[in-house]
Write a structure and sequence with these properties.
Helices cover about 30% and strands about 10% of the residues. The protein contains 5 helices and 7 strands. The chain has a 7-stranded antiparallel β-sheet. The protein binds a DNA duplex through strand 4.
Length: about 325
Amino acid sequence: MDPWVSSQPSLSLDLRVGVPPLGHRQAPAVAMVKPKVLVEETFLPIKKGPEVVALEAELQRMSAENRQLSEMLTAVAVKYEALQSQFSVVSANPSSTSEGGSVSPSRKRKSESLDDSPPPPQQHRHLHTPGGLVLADQTECTSGEPCMRIREECKPKISKLYVHVDPSDISLVVKDGYQWRKYGQKVTKDNPCPRAYFKCSFAPSCPVKKKVQRSAEDNTILVATYEGEHNHGQPPAAQQNSDGGSGKSAGKPPQVPAPVTHLSPHHQEHAAAAAVVVTGEQAAAASELIRRKLAEQMAMTLTRDPSFKAALVTALSGRILELSPTKD
DNA sequence: CGTTTTTGACCAGCGC
DNA sequence: GCGCTGGTCAAAAACG
C-alpha cells in the first residue's frame, strides 16, 4: 500500500469493521478518514444482553486485528516510499537496466532466468489483481489493464502471478481469466514440484505462454510466469472458470484456486513493492484501477467470510430483536 | 469422436 | 566436446 490510500477517502483501507470510532485512539497512519462503521454502536439505547457482550468481545478482537493490519499497512507504505525513491534513482540511470533486451519466446534460456533465480528486490514486484492474484514484475497486464507497463521497450512481456491455493490441491491451475492448454510438464532442478507449461488456447494465434510451478518455499503458493502478450481480448467471464483446464479438463472438476485473501508478510511485501512498478501518470491511472479493485476484493472477501457474516447477522438480529415491539 | 492431458523423447543453450 | 538443464514436441491415453 502506499500513501495514495491515505489520500483517498473512498478507498480507505481502514479495516475497523463494526468498531465504534475511538476518538481517543490515534488513527493508524494508513487510515486517515473517518471509519465507516457497519454496526453502529450507538444505534440503539444501551441494553446489553449476553449476545451483545459476546459480540462486543468479538468486535474488540476484530478491532485489534484491524489495528494490526493497519500497522502492517503502515510498514508497507514506508517500504513503498523507500522503494519508490530507490526506483526514481534507478529510472534516472537507464544504464542500470542491463537485464533488458528482447527474449524470443522459446528456447531462450540465456536471458530468461527470471523464473529460477530470485530477481533483485527491485525487480521482484507483485500486484494484487481483483481475482486474488498477485501480479509481479512489469509489463504484462493479463486482465487488459492498459497502464501497468514500464520500460516495455526494453523488456520482454514477462510477468508473474502468485496465487494462494490449498496445499492439498495438486493441480497447477491458475485462474486468470484466459483459456490455457497444457503442453508440457517438467521437474526442474531447484524445485521438487513439477512445472507445467501452458499456451493460450483462446486464440489460436495468441503467442502467450505461461509456466506454473509451486513455490519451493511455500507450496501453497503457485507461481505463474507469463510470457508474451495476448493478441485478443479477455474471454468472457463465463469462461473464466475453465482456466488451465481450458474447457474440457479431462474429467477433472474445474480447479479454482482460492484467491490470495490472506497474504503472509512475505507476500505483502511483494504486494507493496508492486506499487514501485509505475510512476507518474501511468502510476496514477494504474494505482487508481488497482486500488479500486483491491477495495472491491476486500469487500468481496469480507462478504465471503462466514464468520464476518455471522457476526453481522448476529449484530443486526440482536438489534432488531431489541427494537421489536414484542420485547418488553 | 473431438479435445485435452500426460509423458517420454528430443532439441538447444549454457557451463565446464 | 560433453553433460546438464529447461523448454517443446508429439504420440498415446483419458475424458465427456
